[in-house]
Amino acid sequence: MADDSSSRKRKVRGTKIRTDRAQKSGRKAEKELRRKAAASERNGDTPLSAPEEVAPEPFVETDEIDSIRNRIQGWLEAEQPVHLIGPTGCGKTSLALSAAAERGRPVVWLNGDEAVDTAALVGAHAGGERYEERDQFVGGVDKRTQIVRERWVDNPLSVAVREGATLVYNEFSRSDPAAHNVLLSLFEEGVLERPGKRGDDRTIDVHPEFRAILTSNDIEYAGVHQQQDALLDRVVGVHIDYYDAETEREIVDAHVELPSDQIDEVVSTTQQLRDELDIVVGTRAAITTAKGLSVFNTSDNGIADELLADVFTDVLAPKVSGGREGDDVTELKDRISETV
């Protein structure tokens, strides 16, 4: 009888050992999953960028540019989201990246378009993760522990909020306004909701160093959505217009190797065309024209009027006909030739 009792005790003890080992294996498996997820993020699977990596190069600093950037940085210091508004090609993106880099905090870049929804901003479930632990602690017993769980992936907005980064949301108004409902509580209450995520971590408290810079074209541009007033009330708007002639010369000169007198002629013509044409003639058009002239102009005697008109026509033609030859392009060239 004593032997039977001893045997039963050993069996009970053996069951307990195996149960404890199974629980320990489960905890170890969960810990390993968390470790792998953290390692993946550290190894570059993250939208975070170092400030020096996003600083625009070249970036021209003139009194006019410094004045605008100082306004942006001042509002950021006041903990206000900044919305840069202005015509295409006027340098909004460069200003936003420069102001973000100056803060010395990590930067998260996000580009707006019709495909951006709430999940693209805050994150979503991305399939399941399976981890298996094999246990042969007890001789003759092969035990396998499997853990399967849904894998949640944070997208740029969640990462920026959690890490205290500067979010640069470029072309913000090209995204569907419904996607931006999550920004209301973020900017007003300092809390980011992550719809679709369950549990206590459904929300993220905003890091005190988080800041946001939004850029968008004026509302009359094609593909631009009118955003809800409730959101616009929570941001400050800084309007960016085309720069003065001196600043545009500095910008073109920083991007293209061209004699100064030819840069003066390109910028002067750009500003005249901006006043006379019904299409957008931005600083980017001046840079592209100067690049074209650096290739096509082989004369040492300046720029021939016909060549200048041809290059400007090539640069601006897509704005009137999508680049196809036709009456619109012919009329454009005639008007450019008259200006030149």
Automatic annotation (TrEMBL):
> GO MF annotations for this entry?
ATP binding; ATP hydrolysis activity
Catalysed reactions listed for this entry: ATP + H2O = ADP + phosphate + H(+)
* Entry keyword Transmembrane helix: no
Matches recorded under InterPro entries: AAA+_ATPase, ATPase_dyneun-rel_AAA, CbbQ/NirQ/NorQ/GpvN, Gas-vesicle_GvpN, P-loop_NTPase
Q: Where is the composition biased (Basic and acidic residues)?
A: 17-44
Which domain of life does the protein's organism represent?
Answer: Archaea
- Biological process (GO) annotations? gas vesicle organization
Q: What is this protein called?
A: ATPase AAA
Domain called AAA+ ATPase: residue spans: 78-246
Could you list this entry's UniProt keywords, alphabetically sorted: ATP-binding, Cytoplasm, Gas vesicle, Hydrolase, Nucleotide-binding
Question: Where is region (Disordered) located?
Answer: 1-57
What subcellular locations does the record give? Cytoplasm; Gas vesicle
Report the family membership.
Answer: Belongs to the CbbQ/NirQ/NorQ/GpvN family.
Which Pfam families does the record match to this protein? AAA_5 (PF07728)
**Gene Ontology terms, cellular component aspect?**
cytoplasm; gas vesicle
